[in-house]
Amino acid sequence: MTDDESSPPFSRSPRGGGGPQIAWLLPLALTGLVVVLAWKLYESTPKPVNDKNAESRPVTARGDLAADEKATIDLFRAASPAVVQVTNVQYRRDFWGSNQSEISAGTGSGFVWDAQGYVVTNFHVVEKGDAFTVTFADQSVFDATRVGTDPVHDLAVLKIDPKGKSLPALPIGSSKTLLVGQKVFAIGNPFGLEQTLTTGVIGGLGREIMSLARTPIQGVIQTDAAINPGNSGGPLLDSAGRVIGMNTQIASPSGGSAGVGFAIPVDTINRIVPSIIRTGHFERAGLGISEILDGVVDGKGRRGVIFCSFAASSAAARAGMKPSEFLPDGRLRSLGDAIVAIDGQAVESRADLFRILDSREIGQEVSVNFLREGKEVEARVKLVGVQ
Fold first, then answer.
1. Do residues 220 and 175 lie in contact, with contact meaning Cβ atoms separated by under 8 Å?
2. Distance CA 101, CA 193 (A)
3. Annotated catalytic, 154?
4. 261-316 pLDDT, tens per residue?
5. What distance in Å separates the CA atoms of residue 71 and residue 300, rounded to the nearest whole number?
6. Which position among 124, 257, 352, 358 bears the catalytic label?
7. Is 211 among the catalytic positions?
8. Kindly report the CA angle at 285 between 284 and 290, in degrees rounded to 5?
9. Are 79 and 170 in contact (CB under 8 A)?
10. 355 contact partners, CB below 8 Å, separation of at least 6
C-alpha cells in the first residue's frame, strides 16, 4: 500500500455533521437555562424592606372622653369598691378521716348590703359551703359567716367583721319603675376575672326563672349585658349607680353568655334580705303544706294540686281540708283534697300555687277552691308563715 492509499489518522463519521460539538454545547445550554431561571426567581423574591432609621410614631392627642364614657367610668369607680368575690370552701377528709383539707368549691360575686358587714349573694353561690371568704377590689380578704339563706328565691346573706375597714354600701333602687331599653351595668367576677364591668340594656321585664328549689322566681329582669359563670350574686345597676337586681342566671346552649341574662329584681331582694338578717331565714305566706303532688285531679282532665300531708296546726287543716291517707306500708289509701284555684286564679301545678302565694302576706285571708270526692268546695284560709 502506498503512502497515498493509507487511511487518514481521523476519519469522518459516516453520517457526517459534528457529533462532538453538539455533546459539548448541550451542558452549556442547560447551565444557561438554570442561570436564567435562577435570575427570574431572584427578581420575583420580595426584597428586604428594613429601614434602620425607623422610629416610634408620635402619639396623637385623644381629646376629651365622651360624656357617656365618663359617666360609665365614674359609675364603675363608685360602685366597684362595694362589689366582692365570694369563694365557697368545702372541707374534705382523707380516706382514714384523720386529715382535713380545704377545697375551693367555686367562686361567685356579691355586694355590700350595709356598713355593718352584711354581704348579699345568690344561694347557689354558697350552697354546700363549709366556709367562705370575701375579696374586695383592693384585694383585702375577709372570712365570712353564713347568716341565712332563702333557696326559693336564690338569695343568701354573709357577714364579715370589717375590722375598721370602711364598707361602702351600694344605693338601692326600685324594679317597679324599670323600662325596657334602659342602660344597665353588671359588675362581678366572671370566670374568676375580678372586677369585670359589662354593659347593656334591659331586654325584658316580668320574666320568670326557676330556682334550685324548683320554685318560680317572678318579676325577673332580662338583660343583654354579658353575664357568665362567676357573675352570680353581683349587682345589676342602673345609670344612676343604684342596684336594680342581682345577676343570677343565663340562658345559653353553651354555658357562656349568649346575650340573655337574668337578674332577681331588687324589690324582691329588699323584701327578703332584712328578714334573713333578723332571723336567719325568710318566712313567706303559705298554707302549711309539707308535701304536695300536681296532676289531673278529676275525670274531666282538670289539673290541680293534691295534698299529701300537712300539720294539724297548718292553715289548710284549720280550713277543714283533708290530706291524703296512706297504708302502713306506704301505699296510697285515698287522695286528699285538691286545690284548683286561689282567689279565682287557676292552680294547675305546684309552681302555680307558689306563684300566687308568693305575692300574698302572712295573716292575709285568701279564697281557696278545692275538690273533694268530685265536688268543688270553697273555703276562706288565713295564710301562715312557712319557710
1. no
2. 25
3. yes
4. 999 999 999 999 999 999 999 988 888 877 677 777 777 778 888 877 777 778 88
5. 60
6. 124
7. no
8. 90
9. yes
10. 208, 216, 218
